[in-house]
């Protein structure tokens, strides 16, 4: 498939016409334990595939603005609301020689904005194959960058890339996971698309429905602020991860969707199997159980094989005093341990019960790992930038390990869900050939 070529790079700074009251403009933001933990992983990389854009977007009064300039300007306006993401991570000695502290300096240095072209690549090249073509990873900026490298180096905490395809455009962002989680990521993305969609006469200071982010960080009671980090720890993290990445086996990924009716059928089956237990299984739990069992079959695990399922859970609404528009990283890991035989032999309902938070078991590390993140409640397909709703959603190459799955809204009517699943090539081949798993999917 065609190569992706960079046309231009620029640093976009927050639009100065979008002004916060001075009392709500922090100069420095100190990371929480949740933030610091996420510095060890790749940037969040998500994007949407949009239909073909016009060569120029009419803004009224005879003015025509190229689409990439429109996206750059509306991105700057969105940054005016999320101006802290135009800052940089900094490492400071704690003054006693015992460690370092990390901070996000709201220095207004900007977020990177990349314009690229992918000659010969079409929308169908991305959406038609069950297995996601590797060219998609080239639609994302800051590939292979760890969160900690933004503190030890000088790279931005946020970057966007607009890639022109032959008959469409891919709009993507990469965001440091040590600064924000997927909820804040999509909050910014929704804000950006709404500003672009609502802009009139080339002006981007428009009224939008997306709420303003909340900058104040949430710390557990008694937690030191700022939190000291042992000397050399960040360099150790980067070194260890780089060595681990060099040893990673190759993986492939697929994207499958489940209609609302299929999801209802899975929920009904799971609850019927657990009838009389006093447990009610949700649609997400049923879907994750369906995936868990299918991945075990695809991996051909022995019945006695110890396994672990890790699910990333958003903590907004669960942690006291944390608002819905909280702009930091607020994700907790919960894990369920089992043998492969127990999950495969005891049915969908039993597997779904293992996925019931917060009563999840924690045990020794299991070699057969599956982990999921994101949420089907996040508004992905509402990201219309002004010329049509997204055709698809895809993610970049960050943290693509065997056993990783991402959950999205399905984009095909209410209640639908989608899964992006990453496995070793031979296991993925068996997964997409698994009739029990695939029979619930839609084209």
TrEMBL record:
GO terms for cellular component: cytoplasm. Gene3D superfamilies: Chloramphenicol acetyltransferase-like domain (3.30.559.10). GO terms for molecular function: acyltransferase activity, transferring groups other than amino-acyl groups. It comes from the Eukaryota. The keyword Transferase applies. Keywords: Transferase. PANTHER family: ACETYLTRANSFERASE, FAMILY REGULATORY PROTEIN, PUTATIVE (AFU_ORTHOLOGUE AFUA_3G14730)-RELATED. This is Acetyltransferase. The lineage of its organism: Eukaryota, Viridiplantae, Streptophyta, Embryophyta, Tracheophyta.
């Amino acid at each position: 498939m065609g190569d992706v070529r960079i046309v231009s790079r620029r640093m976009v700074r927050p639009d100065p016409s979008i002004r916060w009251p001075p009392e709500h403009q922090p100069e420095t933001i100190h990371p929480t334990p949740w933030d610091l933990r996420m510095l060890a992983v790749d940037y969040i990389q998500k994007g949407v595939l949009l239909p073909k854009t016009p060569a120029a977007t009419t803004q009224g009064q005879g003015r025509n603005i190229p689409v990439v300039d429109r996206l750059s300007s509306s991105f700057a306006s969105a940054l005016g609301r999320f101006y802290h993401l135009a800052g940089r991570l900094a490492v400071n000695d704690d003054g006693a020689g015992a460690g370092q502290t990390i901070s996000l300096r709201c220095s207004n240095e900007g977020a990177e904005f990349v314009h690229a072209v992918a000659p010969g690549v079409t929308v169908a090249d991305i959406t038609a194959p069950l297995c996601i073509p590797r060219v998609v990873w080239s639609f994302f900026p800051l590939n292979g960058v760890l969160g900690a490298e933004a503190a030890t180096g000088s790279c931005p905490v946020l970057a966007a890339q607009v890639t022109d395809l032959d008959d469409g455009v891919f709009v993507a962002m990469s965001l440091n996971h040590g600064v924000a989680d997927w909820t804040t990521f999509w909050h910014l993305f929704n804000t950006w698309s709404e500003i672009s969609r609502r802009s009139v006469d080339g002006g981007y200071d428009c009224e939008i429905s997306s709420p303003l982010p909340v900058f104040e960080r949430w710390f557990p009671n008694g937690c030191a602020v700022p939190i000291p980090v042992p000397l050399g720890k960040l360099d150790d993290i980067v070194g260890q991860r780089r060595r681990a990445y060099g040893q990673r086996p190759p993986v492939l990924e697929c994207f499958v969707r489940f209609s609302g009716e299929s999801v209802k059928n899975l929920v009904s089956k799971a609850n019927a199997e657990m009838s009389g237990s006093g447990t009610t299984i949700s649609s997400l739990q049923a879907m994750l159980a369906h995936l868990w069992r299918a991945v075990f079959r695809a991996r051909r695990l022995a019945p006695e094989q110890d396994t672990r399922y890790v699910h990333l859970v958003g903590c907004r609404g669960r942690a006291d005093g944390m608002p819905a528009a909280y702009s930091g990283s607020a994700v907790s890991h919960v894990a369920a341990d089992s043998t492969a035989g127990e999950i495969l032999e005891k049915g969908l309902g039993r597997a779904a019960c293992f996925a019931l938070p917060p009563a999840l078991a924690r045990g020794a590390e299991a070699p057969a790992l599956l982990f999921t993140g994101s949420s089907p409640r996040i508004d992905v397909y509402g990201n219309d930038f002004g010329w049509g709703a997204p055709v698809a959603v895809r993610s970049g190459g960050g943290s693509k390990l065997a056993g990783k799955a991402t959950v999205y809204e399905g984009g095909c009517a209410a209640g639908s869900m989608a899964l992006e699943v990453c496995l070793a090539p031979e296991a993925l081949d068996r997964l997409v050939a698994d009739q029990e798993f695939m029979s619930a999917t839609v084209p």
